[in-house]
Amino acid sequence: MGYIGQKMSEREQEAYDSGEMPYSKWTKAAILDELEYADLDVNLFKKCSADTLRDYFLYYAAWHHTGKCFNETGFYGFSMPDPIDFAELNRLEAENKEERAKARAEKKEIKQEIALITYGEWTGPRKHMKLEEHTDYAIIVGNVAHLAYGKTKRISGSHIEVVETYKRCPRGHKKDIDLIRKYLKK
Questions:
Q1: Positive or negative: CA dihedral 26, 29, 32, 34
Q2: Which residue spans adopt a coiled-coil conformation according to this UniProt entry (predicted)?
Q3: Given a cut of 80, is residue 159 above it in pLDDT?
Q4: What is the pLDDT of residues 86-125, one digit of tens each?
Q5: Which element (helix H / strand E) includes 121?
Q6: Neighbour count for residue 33 (Cβ, 10 Å)
Q7: 173 CB contacts (<8 Å, ≥6 apart)?
Q8: Predicted local confidence at residue 17, as pLDDT
Q9: DSSP of 68-100, one letter per residue?
Q10: SS3 of 120, please?
């Protein structure tokens, strides 16, 4: 067993050549292409989500070493059931739709709070590094403090402390908080 360059094993290349790919590479477009190649009316499947199409048409084929660190990656192949059970396809779509709605609701429930935090950052050359302490306003979402310009810090990290939390924007710091919110939306 050899490698093609540093990224792909020969067996991984054989899997790609035989139509198998990692789960993440099976996009909705790739599955619709397979359905079109099988002379099916693709319009019947366009309203289905990518997750539903993956659940219905893909099967686990094997795993292969990928990358220079020899990660194990699962490969999936496309399988066409005969006949296609549209009732099962609709059931999977409804199930996936419910899961997506639940995930969106959980995301909305995550509490955001404005806080004043102190944190340390290592600066200087590698041999003579020193810890500089900073104090900034942040919006805490879950376990992450979001600072201005997209910078983030983990609350559970070392050299970080929440000094104070606020129910409303602190007086005179609306521009700071708005800047953080601007990067939070991205």
A1: negative
A2: 84-113
A3: yes
A4: 899 999 999 999 998 888 887 766 678 999 999 998 888 9
A5: strand 112-123
A6: 13
A7: 137
A8: 86
A9: TTTEEEEEEEE---SS--HHHHHHHHHHHHHHH
A10: strand
